[in-house]
Amino acid sequence: MRKDAGQVFRLEDYRPSDYLIPQTRLTFRLARGATIVVAELTVERRPGTDAGAPLTLDGDGLKLKRLELDGVGNPTHEATPDKLVLTQLPESRSFRVLIETELDPDHNKALMGLYRSNGVYCTQCEPEGFRRITYFLDRPDILSVYQVRIEAPKPEAPLLLSNGNRVAGGDLENDWHFAEWHDPHPKPSYLFALVAGDLGCLRDSFTTMSGRKVELGIHVEHGKEKLAAYAMDALKRSMKWDEDVFGREYDLDVFNIVAVSDFNMGAMENKGLNIFNDKYVLADEATATDADFANIEAIIAHEYFHNWTGNRITCRDWFQLCLKEGLTVFRDHEFSADQRSRGVRRIAEVRTLRGLQFPEDQGPLAHPVRPRRYREINNFYTATVYEKGSEVVRMLRTILGAETFRASMDLYFERHDGQACTIEDFLKVFEDASGRDLSQFGLWYNQSGTPNLTVSPSYEAGILTLDIEQSVPPTPSESRKRAMHIPLAFALIGSSGEELDFSAAEGATVENGVIHVRKRSHKLRFHGVAERPVLSLNRGFSAPITVAMEQRPQDLIFLAGHDSDPFARWQAFNTLQTDALIAAYRLLLGGKEAKYQKDIAQLAGRIATDATLEPAYRALALTLPSETDIARDIGRDIDPDAIFSARSKLAAFIAAANREPFGKLYEELGSLEPFSPDAASAGRRALRNTVLGYLARIDGGADIAARHYNTATNMTDLIAGLGTLAHEHAASSQAGAALADFAARHASMPLALDKLYQIQSTAPGTQALETVRALMRHPAFHIDNPNRVRALLGAFSAGNQTGFHRADGAAYTFFADALLEIDSGNPQLSARLATAFRSWRSLEPVRQEKARQALVSIAAASSVSVDLRDIVERSLA
Ligand code: ARG
Ligand code: ZN
């Protein structure tokens, strides 16, 4: 494990390297215990670098076996496991360096570099894993052409894959064989990949827009080939979509995807050889939920889209991570919107952003979409870089319009193909294509924090006046903020539901339904407005901000029934629910009974049964704000038990008032149709399962949920029944029976057991801690496997507000110990889990102090990784 020297990397310190590596030849001899890697680098001195400059290569825990310079052994050098410095280099501009290192993939538990997962050799190099394979200029602005030779025992590894096209292969002595791969596209080291093992394959092909045939292969465990069919279909749809929507064609003869069972993240876009967490490849109706199908579709698309946004055009340095990630998330969101229901997808995206990114932006881990400093770059694969980064690209499109946006993207690909770029390069393209000045807009990349708009409307004699104030709350190391350019989509809605016109607007630029807020305050006047309108603001969530506006409940009810923008319509009901929940929370804290208005239950009933609305939309509208949503909106002095109680009581109130319509709807939606993973079918299941959640809260609820579980014919319904039983009727005999049944039926299916872990670890209440402790001893639980750990400990800490935030702090202590145990093998994983503490300062004082002590105990432990220490220290700062 790399020890923390407290080193901080800063954006302003970027400087180009003295040397380039135009060509890289790698030879791997894969043998258990001692894998040999020979790297032959063609090194070139950059013009302007003086001949005496040393060549300093990055390493991480490497064992150097042999070193040659232009064919001569043992040149002048200094080597440590983490660095190789060559001095007294030849006068010639270019020379060759040969480096032999020895690795132990079997003992690589950090899952960075070359490791073995379930017997399969695989790699993960982004962001700095390549330096765990060989010494290199391991930075994304060093683009090299790779030729890779893999040698391995044939019975153990009949499949040998790397990037690019396969150019040679054959048998060697002693039952070994080899393959050689050549990738003609110069690429940064983080996109290097190798896979060797014994896997089954689902094959297909895709013919590109210019008529080239691409061989597609998805490699999975033997016997699971059929489970890759949905992923293959998603891949072909992605390839077609990128041609249709962005004019981007694939550029190699083969495209391979490999599913591995030990993986730190979702997937990785290595050139021509994507490596995936198997959770995001394998699916059929019996093993995957509708949410899994949607994630597979999105992630397959995401990694494929990186081929242009990430690989052909890459990042100059890791501060620019959002250049590829924010843009590629935007592209995968647009893909899913086109494949499914745009309105429903948008609501889901916003829920994710608010659930993950807003708390990050509002807590101690806040950072700009393009950070300016880091200690550990792995800790910046965040919701801010990815999700807010995507929203920033979306705002660009809103501001410029779809046509200019597309023209700008064309220019981006044309101008920067083959380069390693910055956010400035990216913004310049949009400025050049549109003729606009985007310097104020650029703050979205450089200033952290969630902007707030306070809007006060008044109407008199045909004139609507909006007083708009913007503010960005202070965030770590940014106490003073500049005013941002916020594109606020809006509509003025008349009493019969139609959009009202206005003759003129003054006080801010208003165009195409968007108010351009650019100053700290605007007084905006709309003239010629026929009646007092109901305001629909931030339609489609045009900006990633919070909006504060006093709105009468009857206006919100009106919007929830009439707004033609699906997001704004959903938002109106969500605001009503949030207001009701917060009011009830305050009553409960004051020792009073929670009270709810009948309106909210009536509206729920109307929406549930409104056949003009898509079922998926209705399901989202009926899903109450989560406990963390509510906590975020309350903001401080949080008592998670009172939030839980307010939320359960509102759900029971809505259920009791709608017993009959909900019961009828549940039955109607239950008529069996053959399974299909498409969005419309999934939407019907989602609505039925949401309604089940309500029915389970009235008399006989346990029986309904048990029947749901027992008659389920797919994983989505099975999990809905199981989750409802385990969370709403935990003490019932039905819950116990269903949990035991599920465990027995899926005993040899780790991905299904993850779902069980997740349900059990998120069962509300203090007893969850004991459940989690017990499950950690479950024979199928392995602390080395990120999926298992996330399903159990990740879900517990981030998804169980009453269980994790027990008032006695016992769960914090337990969790801190678990983090340290995980940290000794996999720092990336422990650091990611530790972000569960990020909102600790918004808790009430007793819990706050206990959480603080847990964080301090981690910081004080004798051996803590750079990754975990970085998160803990920033959280405490
Ligand atoms: N580039 C990958 C993706 O978003 C994520 C890989 C990050 N890996 C890591 N170890 N931090 O598709
Ligand atoms: Zn990505």
From TrEMBL:
Keywords: Aminopeptidase, Hydrolase, Metal-binding, Metalloprotease, Protease, Zinc
GO MF assignments: alanyl aminopeptidase activity
Domain of life where this protein originates: Bacteria
InterPro entries linked to this entry: Aminopeptidase_N-like_N, Aminopeptidase_N-like_N_sf, PepN_Ig-like_sf, Peptidase_M1, Peptidase_M1_dom, Peptidase_M1_pepN, Peptidase_M1_pepN_C, Peptidase_M1_pepN_C_sf
E.C. number: 3.4.11.2
Principal EC category: hydrolase
Cofactor(s) in the UniProt record: Zn(2+)
Catalytic activity field: Release of an N-terminal amino acid, Xaa-|-Yaa- from a peptide, amide or arylamide. Xaa is preferably Ala, but may be most amino acids including Pro (slow action). When a terminal hydrophobic residue is followed by a prolyl residue, the two may be released as an intact Xaa-Pro dipeptide
UniProt xrefs under Pfam families: DUF3458, DUF3458_C, Peptidase_M1, Peptidase_M1_N
Domain Peptidase M1 alanyl aminopeptidase C-terminal residues, every copy: 554-877
Aminopeptidase N-like N-terminal domain ranges (all copies): 91-191
Peptidase M1 membrane alanine aminopeptidase domain location: 230-441
NCBIfam families per record: pepN_proteo
Entry's family note: Belongs to the peptidase M1 family.
PANTHER family: PUROMYCIN-SENSITIVE AMINOPEPTIDASE
This protein's name: Aminopeptidase N
Organism for this UniProt entry: Aquamicrobium ahrensii
